[in-house]
Sequence to fold (447 residues):
Amino acid sequence: MLKKMISAALAVLLCATSLLNATGCTATNAGKSAQDSKTTQTSANDGKKTTVEFWYAGGKTAVGVIQDIVDKYNKSQDKYEVKTVTQADYDETYQKLQAAIAGNSAPDLVLLSPSAARTLDEKNLLADLNEYTKKDDTFNKDDLISAFYSQGTNDKGGQFALPAYGTTQVLYYNIKAFEDAGVDPSSIKTWQDLGDAAKKIKATGKYEYGWEPMWGPDNMIDAALSNGASVFSKDGKKVTINSKQWVEVFEQFRKWIHDDKTMAIHSGGQGWEYWYDTIDDVIQNKAGGYTGSSGDQADLDFSIVQAIEQPAWSSATESKPTAGAQTMSILKSSSDAEKQGAYDFLRYFMSVDSQVEWSTTVGYVPVNKKIMEDDTYQKYLEDHPQAVVPFNQAKHASIYPVDPTNGQVHDALKVAADKVEIDNVPAKEALDEAQKTAQAALDAVNK
Fold:
């Protein structure tokens, strides 16, 4: 590790280039030394396991479960040894990975968001996993939920990532609050139904709020897509985030929060503070429910709450909330043996047994559809029916489109959401401004 750190420092000093365009350094001894040290270590261990370095992040529970799966994998075979390095969060993983790439000390396998992985793929820094799946008789892409699998493909047919697990936001309702208000959870077919339920729950006088959306644009993006909205025009030249479908949704959330006061959000604080404050309100019987991640299931008491899918926006539309994936990618700079080992572990993580352990312990959506054929998982679902809710929702979910502006469109929506949810700015005003900002970013890319 010390050798790697020294090598990385030398590489940065000798090559004053951008983080992801450091290929000019590879001819120098300093640029080669970090990767060479890894190769030398592997060569020196002939007859022993090839070391595969894996970087990832996650919550406390998730980190522990991933490490448990790694430990089981290492014991299951005698060819590869996966060594883990945990990061504080997904963003830090990506930031440190860029620095490691510049210093030629990158790991072999990394857990990233699809957008981060796509950026690296566009710079030709990731291995094409088609090279491995085509030789793998056990791999069948149809075994994977398409909404997750497709997020690791590029427009040239390359596969720069495979899904490790998925997430989608569902409705967690307080059982007692719904009973007190006389609301049948199965009656929530539209967001308008949920708005009416929130009004009834608050009217009981027992709860501060009927419902708590999660701070940020994601809940409203989900609802807008379920209202037939799009982010870009069909030709990809125009940002469409101020269409009537978007304005209708954002304005209705503004009314629920500020005019009717039947809904509320927690915002600000450090890290995930706002998220856990929202959960606490529901668990402590202060609110009738909230919209949260499938990954929350490890932190919830299902004797108090239960889960249902996000509804359609109205009776004239279909439920189409987004489903996202966290994906695993293999670095192109790794040796052939390290890349093969990384792929071998990736496939182990995607196996039914590993997905059962992951999903039942952490709550994120399994990516392998064959999990539904597993007796252990079926028995789990009998006692934990909430676990199948995000899985079923993911099968008809939307995929947030690839953003050529590297996230600037989503950033504009985030600003608009704050104006609507926190500052009580009319939705059309907030979204018109967001559209101008986002369109300028898209025009700059297209030029």
